């Protein structure tokens, strides 16, 4: 008996003509990033994941050469692209691995962004060109060992000592910290929460790498200890005070997550489709079974909706609609729904792969494991539900 062959008419993107809603430049960016990742990341990422490591410095230089670091920022060596273009790049990066996307997101949206928006001209000139080129790596110090969703309870303190500042405290779960050259540290002061640009070779600044992770293993995570770190007045970010500073950075970074989650979803769907087309059971490819096709149909629909939500938010952020501005509540909707949607789809695609799906040879389980972290960091699902709930009801349910 001849085994029927699979001859698909559509891809996850072509099914809803999703490429047609992107500009020619956005499609070119996606192709460029995808090609680079096929050369320098995809052949190695499974091994990095298994080993719990990432060649962050080498990748940062490669990403810098391609203009990906801080690409949505203007000047100082940054590419100055649109927010949507940055989102398209994040989709391709997370399709390769969430840890790789996190390297780029933290560098551009959490380390470079606050310096670019709130920093002095001296701080911008000192750090941004090198960070854009991938010659210096940054990290973002907000979360603490005992303080996560409630940053107003942070314990890290900065006190004045004559013309200097002295920082004491600790930060936890800090992506890029083990290899960072500079850290944007948020601390309580008598004047409220302030941001500090801290070279990581400062006396009293130390980092311990977090090991034993079961998620985002192809990412470098650290615990920062600040033991009497003395900084000059020029280290303070002069353009912001209060929690507005760190929260605005998180809003910026969450936008990249909204797009990145669609990349993990798409890659898992594509891998499951390819596997199901060649895996033969009961004398035909498992892609020909009704239950398998039902899973694919649901996944493709979920992917299309997630991309269109990300694209809409990108267009709003880019000012495409007069009088409409992006809000943190919009970002919360996108982060909440796209991440949990991607997580559910990746889990279902893993089931199509059967036993093979629990190996590093295939991406869905790696993606779903990574997404468990993405579901938590930069605002848990519960936090985003409460943000949206407050917007809809006018009542604060946080306390």
UniProtKB/TrEMBL annotation:
Domain Acyl-CoA dehydrogenase/oxidase N-terminal: 23-135
Keyword Oxidoreductase: yes
Domain Acyl-CoA oxidase/dehydrogenase middle, residue spans: 139-229
Phosphoprotein in keyword set: no
Pfam family, one: Acyl-CoA_dh_N
Sequence ranges assigned to domain Acyl-CoA dehydrogenase/oxidase C-terminal in this UniProt record: 242-392
InterPro entries per record: Acyl-CoA_Oxase/DH_mid-dom, Acyl-CoA_Oxase/DH_mid-dom_sf, AcylCo_DH-like_C, AcylCo_DH/oxidase_C, AcylCoA_DH/ox_N, AcylCoA_DH/ox_N_sf, AcylCoA_DH/oxidase_NM_dom_sf, Glutaryl-CoA_DH_mitochondrial
Xref: PANTHER family: GLUTARYL-COA DEHYDROGENASE, MITOCHONDRIAL
Protein name per the record: Acyl-CoA dehydrogenase family protein
Species of provenance: Spongisporangium articulatum
